[in-house]
Amino acid sequence: xxxxxxxxxxxxxxxxxxxxxxxxxxxxxxxxxxxxxxxxxxxxxxxxxxxxxxxxxxxxxxxxxxxxxxxxxxxxxxxxxxxxxxxxxxxxxxxxxxxxxxxxxxxxxxxxxxxxxxxxxxxxxxxxxxxxxxxxxxxxxxxxxxxxxxxxxxxxxxxxxxxxxxxxxxxxxxxxxxxxxxxxxxxxxxxxxxxxxxxxxxxxxxxxxxxxxxxxxxxxxxxxxxxxxxxxxxxxxxxxxxxxxxxxxxxxxxxxxxxxxxxxxxxxxxxxxxxxxxxxxxxxxxxxxxxxxxxxxxxxxxxxxxxxxxxxxxxxxxxxxxxxxxxxxxxxxxxxxxxxxxxxxxxxx
Length: 349
Fold this sequence. Notes:
Layout: E1 2-12, E2 17-22, E3 27-33, E4 37-38, E5 44-45, E6 54-59, E7 66-72, E8 92-95, E9 101-104, E10 110-115, E11 118-123, E12 128-133, E13 136-140, E14 143-150, E15 160-167, E16 178-183, H1 193-197, E17 205-211, E18 218-223, E19 228-232, H2 312-321
C-alpha cells in the first residue's frame, strides 16, 4: 500500500469520486471517497469533500485501486485550527465552510446551527429545547405557528415582530378556522358601524383574534391606542354568577338595529349628575302598579309649558259648594257625576 498527500481538483457527486493531483505531480481520476460507514443498501455516513481540500490518497502496490481515506489541514500561525472554534476534549463537531454545524457537547448538550441567528440548543437541564432565530415557523396538518421579524418594508422605528397562530377545525379542511396575531401585525383596527358613528380612529393592532375565514364569524382586536374592538356575526351570551362592575371615563353609546329587552329581577337605579333624555319615533309606555315622578317642576308637552295643573279634589269641593244668587231663590250646587276624579293620577300641592 502506498499513501500520498494530494489535492482535490474536482468532485463527482453522482459517483462519489474525486480527481486528485498528488504532491508528487501525479493526476488520478475517479478516486473513491472513503466513508466512515457504508451500508450495502445505501445508508451510511458520508462527507463529500470540496475542491482544494488536502487529502490522504491510498493506493495498492500495483496502483490499480485508490481511495481517499483522510484529510489534512495545512498548518498556520494558530496551528491546525484555521478559524475553527476551540472545543474541549470529547466534543464531536461537524461544520461546513458556510458555518452551519452540528455539535455534540460534553454534558449531553446538542447544538444545531444554520446561521448565527438560526439554531437550536437541546439542553438536558430541565429537558429544555431553546431556539435562536430571526423567524420561526411550524407547519402541520392542522395549521401554522410562526414568530416573524417583518423586514419586507423598512421601518424607521425598527422591524416589526409578529406572533401568528392559525388552526383548522379539521386537518383536511382547506380554510383556517381560528387565527391569533400578536405584536406588530401591521394591520389596522377593523372598522365597524358603531366605530363610524362615534368617530373612532383606527390604529395599529397589537392583538387580533379571528374566528372563521378572515374573521368572518368573530374578530377581537386591541390596538396601540388601547382601543378594544369586538365584532361578531352571531349572538353573544354573557352569564355571570356574581356582579358586573365597570367604570367608563369617556362616555358610552349602545346601538341596536332591532327590538331589545332589559329584564332585572330586582330594583334598578339610574343616577346622573346631568340630564336624562328619552326619545322615541312612536311612543313611550310606562307600565307599573305605581309610577312616581319626584321633581321640583314637571312640564308636559315641551320645556316651555307654563299652565299649571288643577288640583281636582279641591276644585270639585269648591264647585259642590258654589251657588248663584239671583232675583229668584238661590240656585242649588251643581250635580257632578260619580267618578269625575281620577283614581290613578295624583299630583302634589
